[in-house]
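Reader question, answered in our methods column.
A reader sent in the components of a multi-part assembly and asked whether the whole thing could be modeled at once rather than chain by chain. We filled in our standard form and ran it. Here is what they sent:
COMPLEX SIZE: four components
ENTRIES:
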Amino acid sequence: MSSTDTGAEDTDARPLRADARRNRERLLDAARVVFGENGSEAQMDDVAERAGLGVGTLYRHFPTKTALMAELVRQKVTVFAAHARTALEAPGDPFERLAAALRSCAEAVEEDAATRYAMGAGTEIWDAAADEHEQLMALFDALIARGRAAGVVRADLTAADIPMLMCGIATSIERGFDWRRHLELVLAGLR
Amino acid sequence: MSSTDTGAEDTDARPLRADARRNRERLLDAARVVFGENGSEAQMDDVAERAGLGVGTLYRHFPTKTALMAELVRQKVTVFAAHARTALEAPGDPFERLAAALRSCAEAVEEDAATRYAMGAGTEIWDAAADEHEQLMALFDALIARGRAAGVVRADLTAADIPMLMCGIATSIERGFDWRRHLELVLAGLR
DNA sequence: CACGATACGGAGCTAAAGTTCCGTTTGTCA
DNA sequence: TGACAAACGGAACTTTAGCTCCGTATCGTG
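And here is the structure of the entire assembly that came back:
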C-alpha cells in the first residue's frame, strides 16, 4: 500500500518539501491502521500519534477528517480499478471474470475500514474520487458488455448496478455477516 | 403507527400514570418524525421539543438515545412480522409470496430512518427486539420452506440469509440508490 | 553559512450533543 | 380536598472529538 502517487492536487503545483512528502505517507499509513482498528470513529489525535507526528501536521496535510478519509478511499478506488482491469484482461468465462472482479473488490473492502465506512455513509467522500470512479465504471461497463455478448449475464445489467450491490456487500462485511455468501447470492441474480 | 401496545416492560409491572402513558406515545411519535427528517443524527432535544415536552421527560421514558431507537426498531420488527404473516397466508406462487414479503418490509424500512440506521449500525439496538426478531425469523423460515417444497426457491436458502440481504437493501435505501432495482436483482438470485 | 519559506508540535479552544439534577407541577387515592 | 408519589421542565453539566494558533524547528537555496 501507500504506493499510489499523489500527483498534483494543489491547484498551484508547488513541490512538497522532502520531509513533508515523507510525513504525508506516514500519516496515510497510520490512518489505514487506526481506521482498521477502530472503524470510522478513529480519532485524528490517534492517527497523528500513530504516525509519530503532531495533530497540527496532520491538519496541514488533510484539512478535515473527511479529506483524510477521502484520500484513503481515492486510493482504494484505484485498487478496485486494478482488480477490474486484471479481470477484464484475464481469459475464461466472462461471467466468472466479472465475479472474480467483484470478489477481489470485496476483499479489498474487507481490509479497509475507511472505505467500508464511506460505502455506507454519505456521498461527500466519493466526490473526491470522481475521476477514479469514472474509470472504474468504464471497466465494469466493459466486463458487463462481454458477459452480455456471451449471453452469460442478464441483459439489463448495467455498470450502475455494481456500486449499489457492492455497498450492500460492504454493509455485510461491516456487520460481520457471511459476506461471501451474500456475494454469491447476489452473483446468482446477475446471470 | 404508534399502535403496538407497550405491554409490561418494567420488571416491576407498576401501571404508568395516565399522563405518562400519553406522553410516552407522543415521544415515540415525535421520534419517528424527527428521525425521519434528520436521520440518526436527530437530537434528543429536538425529539422532546417536537413532542411538546422537556428533555427530562424524554429521559424519564427512555434512559438513553439508543433505548429510544431500540423501541422504534422493536415496533418496526413487529410490522415486518405482520407483512411476513400476510404473505405466508396469501394464496399464489410461493416465490412471489416471499418476494412480496421482502418488498413490503423494504417499504417499511424506507419509511423509518431509525430502523434504517439500526440496520446499518451495531447489533446493540437489535438485542432489545430479540423476541420479535425470533418470530420474524420463524415466519421467513416458513415462507422459504414452502418455496423450497415447490421447487421455486434455491435449495440452500435459509432464513438467516434474509436479514443479511435486507441490510444491503437498507443501505441502498439510505444512500438513495434505486433500491427496488436492488431488491429485484437480489430476488433473482434466490430462485 | 545564513536567511527566508516551509513545515512541525501540541496545548488548548470550541461547539455539539447526550445526560443529569432538582425545584415545580400534576395525577391519584382515600 | 388534602397529601403524597409520580411525573415534568429545562437550565446547566460533562464529555468528547474535531480543529486552530502560534512559537519553534527544519529544509533548501544563493
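What stands out: Chain A touches chain B through 26 residues (CB under 8 Å). The mean pLDDT of chain A is 91.
Send us your own complexes using the same form.
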